[in-house]
Design brief:
The chain is of the alpha+beta class and 115 residues long. It has helices spanning 54-76, 82-89, 93-96, 98-114; strands at 3-7, 25-27, 37-41. The chain folds into 2 domains: 1-48, no CATH class; 52-114. A 3-stranded mixed sheet has the order 2-1-3, with no helix packed on it.
């Protein structure tokens, strides 16, 4: 089965053999107009997420949930310890919340800088 990535309104342009795409997929690009990329699959294609086995779908959902809960706990788990941190380290509340502030700034700017 072949899956195809194509930009709308673009003629067929296959990816070169040394590209990072597998041999089963082709890539069409439209750099002039920056049209959105549309991914299409042949019927019954095992690479189509809708055709994945139930265990693979649930494993994917479970890993996303685990990552989301970990990030949420990382942001909220620090907050209750701020007052103890202030007392133990003899710092102001501004310095005590600096760790949380940097973490949240990293959550916001990390994806922006890596995209």
């Amino acid at each position: 089965m072949r899956s195809t990535l194509r930009a709308q309104g673009e003629a067929n342009t296959h990816a070169p053999p040394d590209s990072s795409l597998s041999n089963d997929a082709s890539l069409e690009t439209n750099t002039a107009t920056k049209a959105p990329t549309v991914v299409t699959f042949q019927p019954g294609d095992p690479e189509n997420p809708r055709n994945w086995p139930r265990w693979k779908k649930w494993a994917t959902i479970g890993s996303i949930i685990l990552i989301d809960l970990t990030v949420s706990f990382g942001a909220s788990g620090f907050s209750p310890a701020v007052t103890n941190f202030e007392k133990d380290m003899h710092v102001s509340s501004v310095v005590a919340t600096l760790g949380l502030s940097i973490f949240v700034a990293g959550l916001a700017w990390g994806p922006v800088c890596t995209s």
